Amino acid sequence: MAIQIKTLEQLKVMRRAGLVVAEIHQAIRAAIKPGMTTSALDAVAAACIKRNGATPNFLNYHGFPATICVSVNEEIVHGIPGDRLINDGDLVSIDCGAIIDGWHGDAAFSVGVGNVDAQDQKLMDVCEESMWRGIAAGKLGARLTDISAAIENYIDSQGKYGILQEYGGHGIGTEMHQEPHVLNFGKGGNGPELIVGMALAIEPMITRGTHKTKVLGDDWTVVSQDKSRGAHFEHSFALLPDGKPFVLTAADGGRAKLASLGIEISSLLS
């Protein structure tokens, strides 16, 4: 399947969807606390989507029964919200998306609740920074696996972490998951050239232990085989007609973080 190339007008709609996702993240960060159920977080996201006149892209996606994915501790991705209580010290990963006028936004983050173990905090920090290193490597004219290599190289420089092999980033546009698949590991210089109009979701997923995972009996929840805790971060970014990137799901378009990595974002969606 070919990579979908977007016009500036289409990317403007994706930015609107991305801002809804950013608002969901902000609302969940403000709400999450020990004693909450994971389904209560799902309700926060659903209300935010409804308030913005958007549509959830996870709900009923291949039968997924909720608005967001909530994954706790050894659950890495695709956790189904329910009656599970969030406890002090838990590491919680939230993945969510929204659709505006047929165009998708998709982003994820992990957060420690209450008193967070220092190694869990480092796990999250490394995962988040690796995502930004991957986005920074996604320059006009680069190759797709330059992103993969930047993510892996940063993670490996910070310690011994498991990088999930079966799951990665993806193209995004009129569908949540499109070509190309973006690995979070590998040698740079391979894959399609990055050109104006591409939109990619970059999402490293790592654990404090092995990269090996298994899917639970609900056919969704992905956990680490060794029960080590995991982290998951994701942002969707695009290459604009001025040749510069813009992070569609970040409130500031990625300006502050990418500036610290020497990357200037596009002004075409500001």
From TrEMBL:
Q: Name one GO cellular component term.
A: cytosol
Reaction equation(s) it catalyzes:
Release of N-terminal amino acids, preferentially methionine, from peptides and arylamides
GO BP terms, alphabetized = proteolysis
Under the GO molecular function aspect, what terms does this record hold?
initiator methionyl aminopeptidase activity; metal ion binding; metalloaminopeptidase activity
Q: What is its EC number?
A: 3.4.11.18
Q: Give one Pfam family, short name only.
A: Peptidase_M24
What keywords is this UniProt entry annotated with?
Aminopeptidase, Hydrolase, Metal-binding, Protease
Q: What does this protein do?
A: Removes the N-terminal methionine from nascent proteins. The N-terminal methionine is often cleaved when the second residue in the primary sequence is small and uncharged (Met-Ala-, Cys, Gly, Pro, Ser, Thr, or Val). Requires deformylation of the N(alpha)-formylated initiator methionine before it can be hydrolyzed.
Q: What is this protein called?
A: Methionine aminopeptidase
